[in-house]
Amino acid sequence: MTHAHVTSWFLAVVLFVIAYMLYKKGDQKKSKIFHMIARLMYLLIIATGGKMLFDYLTDPTIVNRGPLIIKMILGLSVIGLMEIILVQKKRGVTKLRNWAFFWITFLLTLYYGWNVL
Ligand code: HEM
């Protein structure tokens, strides 16, 4: 399950970057396809992460659940920010603030996934 989770968020980030660059180039048709596949990956991230989270939360031997909840909030924020950045780029808007939030939450999510949990 961890492997599927890592694969899906990695693919989502790659597709997000490709869709972003295509929107930037003004190629609405191709970017839409990459955007749609990225959205499919978001669902896979939530499904795999949600399944692992459920297993951990129902495991009575796990005492400290706080970091798991924080990891979920961070992961959902990364997905939300990728979607916001793409939708804004589609309309021709670039907000530096959202990129700053994206990098902060993305790096924090990786830190939580690999170093804290
Ligand atoms: C783009 C968003 C996300 C990124 C970049 C991300 C990243 C990661 C990473 C790097 C790990 C550690 C994998 C490993 O042990 O090798 C992980 C594990 C995990 N993630 Fe995510 N994740 C994201 C979204 C989510 C979401 C939305 C949820 C919850 C619904 C979630 C729940 C979990 C859980 C429960 C684990 C297992 C922790 C463990 O077994 O140590 N993740 N994630």
TrEMBL record:
Record carries keyword Transmembrane helix: yes
Coiled-coil parts of chain: none
Domain of life: Bacteria
Pfam families per UniProt: DUF1516
Membrane-spanning intervals of the chain: 6-23, 35-54, 66-86, 98-114
Transmembrane among keywords: yes
Sorted UniProt keywords: Cell membrane, Membrane, Transmembrane, Transmembrane helix
InterPro entries referenced in this protein's UniProt entry, alphabetically: UPF0344 (IPR010899)
Official protein name in the record: YisL family protein
Annotated organism of origin: Fictibacillus iocasae
